[in-house]
């Protein structure tokens, strides 16, 4: 070994040690308990940006993270497991190349972490499988992620994802909506650029030092449209390697080497070039942003996604030749047309040309819901009902992101129940689409850290507060956005519109979508509302967090008494008018889980029913019902799952669901609340089966009886 070579090794080791020291300090700052939640989220984002800008730092960061996980294992610091696991997995997706021995060390560390309790072992197991796949087929996580999120066309990996962000107009004013939309809906790279990034990342990850990143980058640029051929080859190679497992590792590397040599030769470059690695950014997913004014919009987007028809495609791909075919097809979808000849003629033409049915028509106009559902069903079933589902079944993932406060989740609960009800009768979307729900809390009220303000603002963010208590990593990365998003909007409004968009929000959302896969299940409650003067069945509604019942006659008196902190003399004066008389029947919640039905009458000027417990250990399977009164001795609080409240006097009251004035009912005489049953369960138990189908009816006892609303977090709750 010459002196120059020895000296270069010493310099490289010292630089690596300096990078590791810097990474160690960053990790410690994130894990430090004294750091605020907002700072932790910003530090996490900064750390991943360092890796994206300097890909050579990824190996040092992986080493530091593994050391910290090993320390956690020895010292039993469970509170550090979740941040370290998510950070490590995300860095591995970003990394251009990680040595095999380091991969093995990560895998062995994960195996030991499987002995931890829930939810740590569940998250460890999920990432352990990903790490094993990446160890055998380097670059697979990045490639699959980009193909699915960007809907890159290929023949070998059919997964597609679509991100829909729905912002509540009650929170998002015009300026705030425009600012957030500008930050989220960014002009992404073209498909040929994405294909080059996938090729570059996969070849660098698989070949390591045998690949020259800068030369390969230039060669891919020079190929132009010919890059598509090599993209398809790499996708096929990766998918076959995943299928073959460990036995095909050497064959896969040889195959990548051939592709690498062919690319450089085609671009008139040295096919044996070796050198440093180049940066391959992990692009943010394509985001469809909506101001959620129409609740049906969510359902329509899911249907359009299932049909693989976007609004732009409907406008641009509509042609005169298809117009006649579409009109005939839509006429056939009408139940009462009665034209049998058209049906037979159409079936004969489709039998002669099977492509007629497999092609998805595009519509310029607005379709009726029943026509759209029939089209979805036709797209899935094929020519006959006995035809099996296509291979694409379950290959679509719709990631629904709700932005707002408790009110937006209340509206989502109503729509989610409606979707489940439709799917219980016609299982169509569920067969094709994997629905994932995310929540980013945003409030239109100023958040001030004072005892007077937290109760009012916390009232609108009770669901977000609960998620933050059960998942500190959600609190650090997502809840902190609630106050930050309005600030970002104000900052953007002060700058010119030509300024560069702020990537912080879209980066945090991308991180949440990719790592937040552990759901917290909120129980939905159905409420039957009987309105005075209304004939027929009561109104059926759904809520997820709150129900407020208020008696207008006592509203002003109640507010005045609270503000004045009424004296004993004042209290005595109002003892006779401390509220309206209501009767209630409810099932008392006990530790033994035995149902005890009780009934009583109380005088109250307001009822507050909350499904969110202030203590996360109490779970989400019961309601806290508080009967307020101007007389403190008349105030009552109970815990129950089922309750019926009826006013005994010639009065009515007002009901507001999930703090949303848009979901307010007046002149109410009674309400009946119970956990919302899953429509699929109801259909199984209520259907009449023939003798040959009695066994299938027994499936209902294996189904979930209560319908939950799953909100994805980083930790989840173990049931």
Automatic annotation (TrEMBL):
<feature type="compositionally biased region" description="Basic and acidic residues">
    <location>
        <begin position="343"/>
        <end position="352"/>
    </location>
</feature>
<dbReference type="GO" id="GO:0046935">
    <property type="term" value="F:1-phosphatidylinositol-3-kinase regulator activity"/>
</dbReference>
<dbReference type="InterPro" id="IPR019522">
    <property type="entry name" value="PIK3R5/6"/>
</dbReference>
<dbReference type="GO" id="GO:0005944">
    <property type="term" value="C:phosphatidylinositol 3-kinase complex, class IB"/>
</dbReference>
<feature type="region of interest" description="Disordered">
    <location>
        <begin position="343"/>
        <end position="364"/>
    </location>
</feature>
<protein>
    <submittedName>
        <fullName>Phosphoinositide-3-kinase, regulatory subunit 6b</fullName>
    </submittedName>
</protein>
<dbReference type="GO" id="GO:0007186">
    <property type="term" value="P:G protein-coupled receptor signaling pathway"/>
</dbReference>
<dbReference type="Pfam" id="PF10486">
    <property type="entry name" value="PI3K_1B_p101"/>
</dbReference>
């Amino acid at each position: 070994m010459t002196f120059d070579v020895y000296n270069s090794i010493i310099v490289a080791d010292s630089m690596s040690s300096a990078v590791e020291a810097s990474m160690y300090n960053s990790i410690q700052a994130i894990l430090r308990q004294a750091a605020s939640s907002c700072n932790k989220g910003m530090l996490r984002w900064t750390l991943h940006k360092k890796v994206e800008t300097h890909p050579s730092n990824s190996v040092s960061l992986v080493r530091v993270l593994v050391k910290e996980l090993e320390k956690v294992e020895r010292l039993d610091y469970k509170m550090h497991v979740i941040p370290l696991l998510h950070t490590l997995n995300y860095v591995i997706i970003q990394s251009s190349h990680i040595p095999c021995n380091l991969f093995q060390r990560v895998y062995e560390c994960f195996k030991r972490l499987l002995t931890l309790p829930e939810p740590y072992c569940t998250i460890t197991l999920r990432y352990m499988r990903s790490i094993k796949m990446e160890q055998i087929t380097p670059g697979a996580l990045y490639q699959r992620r980009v193909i699915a999120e960007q809907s890159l066309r290929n023949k070998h990996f059919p997964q597609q994802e679509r991100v829909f962000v729905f912002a509540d107009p009650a929170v998002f004013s015009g300026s705030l909506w425009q600012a957030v939309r500008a930050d989220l809906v960014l002009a992404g790279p073209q498909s040929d650029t994405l294909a080059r990034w996938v090729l570059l990342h996969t070849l660098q990850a698989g070949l390591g030092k045998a690949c020259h990143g800068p030369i390969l980058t230039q060669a891919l640029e020079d190929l132009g449209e010919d890059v598509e051929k090599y993209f398809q080859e790499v996708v096929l190679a990766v998918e076959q390697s995943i299928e073959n497992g460990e036995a095909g590792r050497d064959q896969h590397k040889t195959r990548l080497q051939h592709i690498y040599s062919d690319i450089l030769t085609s671009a008139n470059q040295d096919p044996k070039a070796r050198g440093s690695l180049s940066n391959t950014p992990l692009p943010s997913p394509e985001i469809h942003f909506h101001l959620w004014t129409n609740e049906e919009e969510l359902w329509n987007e899911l249907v359009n996604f299932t049909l693989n028809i976007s609004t732009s495609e409907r406008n641009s791909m509509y042609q005169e030749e298809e117009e006649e075919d579409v009109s005939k097809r839509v006429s056939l979808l009408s139940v009462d047309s009665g034209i049998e000849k058209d049906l037979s003629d159409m079936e004969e033409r489709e039998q002669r040309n099977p492509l007629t049915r497999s092609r998805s028509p595009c519509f310029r106009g607005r379709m009726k819901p029943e026509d759209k559902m029939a089209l979805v069903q036709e797209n899935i079933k094929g020519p006959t009902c006995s035809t099996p589902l296509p291979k694409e079944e379950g290959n679509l993932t719709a990631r629904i992101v709700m932005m707002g406060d408790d009110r937006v989740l209340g509206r989502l609960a109503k729509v989610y129940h409606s979707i489940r009800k439709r799917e219980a009768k016609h299982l169509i979307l569920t067969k094709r689409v994997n629905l994932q729900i995310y929540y980013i809390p945003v409030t239109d009220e100023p958040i001030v850290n004072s005892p007077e303000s937290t109760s009012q603002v916390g009232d609108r963010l009770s669901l977000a507060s609960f998620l933050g208590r059960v998942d500190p990593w959600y609190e650090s990365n997502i809840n902190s956005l609630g106050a930050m998003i309005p600030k970002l909007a104000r900052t953007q409004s002060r700058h010119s519109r030509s300024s560069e968009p702020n990537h912080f929000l879209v980066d945090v959302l991308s991180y949440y979508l990719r790592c937040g896969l552990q759901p917290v299940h909120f129980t939905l409650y159905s409420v039957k509302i009987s309105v005075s003067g209304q004939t027929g069945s009561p109104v059926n509604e759904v809520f997820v967090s709150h129900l407020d019942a208020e008696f207008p006659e006592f509203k002003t008196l109640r507010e005045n008494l609270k503000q004045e902190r009424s004296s004993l003399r004042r209290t005595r004066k109002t003892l006779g008018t401390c509220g309206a008389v209501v009767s209630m029947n409810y099932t008392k919640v006990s530790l033994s889980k035995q149902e005890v039905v009780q009934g009583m009458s109380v005088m109250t000027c307001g009822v507050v029913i909350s499904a969110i417990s202030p203590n996360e250990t109490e779970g989400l399977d019961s309601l806290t019902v508080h009967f307020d009164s101007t007389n403190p001795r008349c105030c009552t609080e109970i815990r129950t799952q089922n309750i019926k409240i009826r006013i005994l006097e010639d009065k009515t009251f007002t009901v507001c669901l999930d703090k949303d004035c848009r979901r307010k009912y007046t002149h109410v005489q009674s309400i009946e609340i119970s956990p919302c049953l899953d429509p699929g369960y109801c259909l199984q138990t209520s259907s009449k089966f023939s003798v040959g189908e009695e066994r299938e009816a027994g499936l209902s006892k294996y189904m979930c009886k209560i319908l939950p609303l799953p909100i994805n977090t980083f930790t989840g709750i173990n049931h």
